[in-house]
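=== RUN LOG ===
request id: a7f3
mode: sequence -> structure
chains: 1
length: 798
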Amino acid sequence: PTKPNGARCEVWIVGMGKLGARELNVSSDIDLIFIYECDGQTQGRADGTGSISHAEYFGRLVRRVTALIGEVTDHGFVFRVDLALRPNGQSGPPALPLAALEEYFVVQGREWERFAWLKSRVVAPRQALASAQALRTVVLPFVFRRYLDYGVFEALRTLHRQIREQAGRRSAGRPARANDVKLSRGGIREVEFIVQLLQVVRGGQFPELRTRPTLDALQRLAAAGLVPTQTADELAQAYTFLRATEHRIQYLDDQQTHALPQDDADLDWLARSLGLADASAFLQALDGHRERVATEFDRLLGDAAARECRGPGCGSGAGAPTPNLTALITSAPEDFAQRVRSFANHARVLALRDDARQRLVRLVQRTVAWLAEGRVNTTAAVRSVDWLEPLLRREAYLAMLLERPQVHERLLRLLGAARWPAVYMRQHPGVIDELASDLLLAERFDPVAFESELERRRVSLAATREDDDEALMNLLRRAQHAEVFRTLARDVEGCLSVEQVADDLSALADAVLAITQRWCWSRYKKAHRADPRLAVISYGKLGGKELGYGSDLDLVFVHDDADERAGEVYGDFVRKLITWLTTQTRDGALYDIDTALRPNGNAGLLVTSLDAFENYQLQRGSNTAWTWEHQAMTRARCSSGPADLAQRVSAVRARVLAAPRAATALRDEIAAMRERVRAAHPVVAGRFDVKHSPGGMVDVEFALQYLLLAHASHHPELIDNLGTIALLQRCEALGLIGVGVGSAAANAYRELRRAQHSARLDESSTQVEPQGLQAERQAVLQLWQAVMAPMVSGATAH
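=== RESULT ===
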């Protein structure tokens, strides 16, 4: 058999089930599927005769191989061979070309087949293993979907129900078969279903979950935080015990059975072979393991009643009437009812498949019930409809919300608290699964754990040779989006203060910068050393650890490398680094990057040497920094880079802040810059902008910058980058401003930040009625007057 280019057409013998996962029992049959590369004709004889189709050729091959292995002779057989898992089962061709397999997956592939192909592995012939990647590219998209895939829950329930019913029919009138360690409640199959379900649901987003053996998959699920470690350990122990029992059952009579023996002597032997005293101890241990498995299985796939649709407008079962959304809202608040009525006639709703529309109806019914119980508010319910509308083409999210009532309720609370969460979840819908975590509101961002987890996932990708640039960029994006969303959820639930939100978002940005720098360099073809001598200096909100949702990053890049190629190498590398951070991939982007604060601004080099950076900042030579650049340095710090280089950057910053300055000239320059900033941000008459109006946040920041630049030479304790509030309190303690002035301004700044934060979360204007923040405004104006007014011409206009 040949391909169009004359090369041999390969065949892949695919091991399925326990053979694919290397989990065979002593009496297992082997499930095989034969796939060949392409249709065509065999070469035939030299005279041009004897050519047959590839289908016929490989059909003969299948019959020959299965007979050689499976036929019973005087010496028995090698393995029983089962071909029933092939497309179309026993009615399908014995071997299938790759293109036909791909078409089958797209057109006819069923959910249970995804679980079967999850464990698939090319087992022979050995010379064809190298070309099996072509088969992998067809199988992977079928088994693992790009987005969260909760639609498989119902399919797996149905499959499980069918297996249990089949097992029940087989055991009818045969008590021995009723105690089946594989198919009975809490048996081997339920462990496998738990594991495979989570793999299929999340494997599209977490490539490290794409493993075949059950125990290995359990470890990976626990490492990914998708199964609690204790649960994974208990399931692993149960699976090991059940499989060991299964082996011993089959040792007894060399039969492919999973039912416990009925003879007491056999049970005693089985117990002792497992290291247990007697049959009673064995049965007690067996019951314990089964109960733990069944409990977890029911938690994951049970509680069908919570998802049932009962009441007006809900169909049930085959042939049920088309679900009627409007029939559910007769008693709902009018705002919500009006929105649902409009939504019910939306083209996307009308185009939904019946099962998806049933899910939508059940979600609306559940929301109506929660409204009546007071568990959610009308605002949340209305916003949930607005949020769902653009996502209807991804029906898996309807399935997820239906499957996870606790996620649905948390989602509604989140939507009811502010507008911006809905925007973020529309941009990154995959993050809503984070709401299912029991630890969501109990923990804060941990940068060490974050970096460790990402590194573990990178290693997993490398092991499967899927660690190309795009895969790593998407991995970073998914992880960053999930952490932002976790912080957002904790924020709107009132678990974090504004300062804590900023701290966590800033720590996340630092971690992402560090990981991205490390990964980019490891893949950078011009790298001339093991680790880059590059520091990423953050300014502005990130520099002051006051980052907000959606903030861009003000960054400056400096290197400390004597290599003659350093300027070219690091310039090119930083462009690659910025590309990794800003590129819009299928999973979104990470951050917008602003490099305008580098020496000489946009006209300067993207990366400078540390010596050149120091000379520029310390006014050495003809090319020197402006005062506003020194103002920016008050909030600068090193977010990423070697520790010794970060220390040198900190030392440069300290020398810049501690340089002697003429107080009057400094006041005039900072005040003039303040006026230019204000002019660039006009405020509507009669409104107060919490950031830019007189008495707003910028006044606090500029006044503090003057205090630091004017007094750090005599008070080195002002050099530490502690944040605006702590430094104001320190200035007051040092007597640089009057008693009470600094603390009042610090408290005012905190309230102004809170007002700005709340406005942005709710997507409302930061220009508010001045009466609500009158006390805070006066405290800031008092600070400005005390610090900036005495020697600044025109200060009264402020």
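=== NOTES ===
DSSP finds 32 helices and twelve strands in the chain.
The first helix runs from residue 17 to 20.
=== END ===
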